[in-house]
Design brief:
With 369 residues, this protein is mostly helical. Helix content is 63%, strand content 2%. It is built from twelve helices and two strands, in the order H-H-H-H-H-H-H-H-H-H-H-E-E-H.
Amino acid sequence: MKTTQRYLALDVLRGITIAAMITVNTPGSWSHIYAPLRHAAWHGCTPTDLVFPFFLFVVGVSMFFSFSKYGNQLNRESLVRLSRRTVLIFAIGLFLNSFPQWSKDFSQLRIMGVLQRIALVYGFASLIVLSVQKKYLPYIGGGILLVYWGIIYFMGTGDPYSLESNATIPFDRMILGEQHLYRGFGIPFDPEGLLSTLPAIVTAILGYLAGSLIKQHEKLQVPKQLVLWGIAGVIGGLVWGQFFPINKALWTSSYVLYTGGLASIFLGVLVWIIDLKHYQKWTSFFVVFGMNPLFIFALSGLWAITISRIIRWEGRNGEMQNAYSWLYQEVFVPLAGPLNGSLLFALTHIVFFWFIGYVLYKKKIFIKV
């Protein structure tokens, strides 16, 4: 008998990714971070580089079960729903980028971001999976990854895989405008830009295929199938990575296969532990995050902006100080030192937002973003 039940492991994985996103985005100091909590400088993949693709993978898995009520087909009802959600998530991301500059000059406003990428990936991946028969999805995903590799290889200048001369920069500059790109790499380059969103769509498609795999196999076979396909993805990513380096900032095709494979393995292990072996007592913490994931993530971003850019005052030395740095310097550094204090700062925020999520969960309030 094929399973139709909801898998607790999926909610737990979603919650783990949200907790991890808050952890890596909210250190007490960006100068004091443990190595696993940093992104790779360019090529390569750290544990932190797994968080975002894991979330998009879960988005894809959830899409399969969510769209089952529409027969997993594109129709008026499903089109309205996915369009509305895409616009809403993108708008929230743009709101966070503009906060608190509403009355100021927007000529330097960054247009893209994490939530904006989630929105576009969800929207385009939904259109693809609802418009195309499932058996063709691997070919479409593979085609997208090959096309993206070709664009990066042939349309870059100099080293096509370098920060300075990769093809995403002129493309995003042409569409978005150089003044609206991220500058955290020292040059106008957006790691959540438009062109590199193309392969990210495949990450969600891989999740969708994992969802269909969960649905079509007997419960006992699900972990094995997820792990086997995951191993194939990891090997494929590592092999392709010899020619097209694994790189989160470019969201390279090898990175898609590698991280998608790891996500499938991780989900398979969680299904085995949680849904087959029923070791579930530890899961409640992450389920709280998994029930209101995007709301909690957006709220954490709004909070960080508020205490770093709005709540400010003149310090003892006459310089302006914000609440974010004050909390770190005056509370967490004395408690644990610069490095551990920075981690403790992030973990405290995990507990803080978990409590908010817990209140919503107990009141059965689920904010669908």
